[in-house]
């Protein structure tokens, strides 16, 4: 149990993910503070059924770190390679009517450093899990409005804690077939409306949550040991006991 807990604490924090993505972006295109992790900024809209969909005003009473985060299911409708990067994909992702409405009724543009690990043809038309309310940032000069969550194992050159863990592998998460695009993943007791944007100090909520997110020995993606559940079943990864970021 102790080693499991220690493993959780070694996972990426938001500052680490930002520095990793910064290195993926083309050097010439990146301005100070511009290259960073993909993030999104949903604003409040009509409350979804059972209170699980809508964004909340900042400082909502009884909110938890998890409830402030917006993990939503999206569908990748277009993928292209960044013209100046051998690592970055540019994705267009449908996040459903409510979240699309917050981006001028357009699919989200999201950049991910996955060229080395994911084929374009395996990415298009796939359901993915997106963290949708981090502060928007540019990656390689292109605005990115979300982060596609993946599972990874092995040694990561950008993470000293992973030294000696073998060859690096990164995979997209497996969303149950039939899950509705735009569905938010929530946990019992943490299903309050999410924050519109996790800006500044609020970004620590995502960092805190991700310290306790991993796939278990059966490949089920969990937070604090509880599965990421959709209306059609749990989200899984083909990599067991993996980091999620």
Automatic annotation (TrEMBL):
Q: Name one Pfam family in it.
A: tRNA_bind
Write the record's keywords in alphabetical order, separated by commas.
RNA-binding, tRNA-binding
Q: Which InterPro entries match?
A: NA-bd_OB-fold, tRNA-bd_dom, Tyrosine-tRNA_ligase_regulator
Q: Name one GO molecular function term.
A: tRNA binding
Name all TRNA-binding domain ranges: 65-186
Give the protein name, as stated in the record.
tRNA-binding domain-containing protein
Organism expressing this protein natively: Leptomonas pyrrhocoris
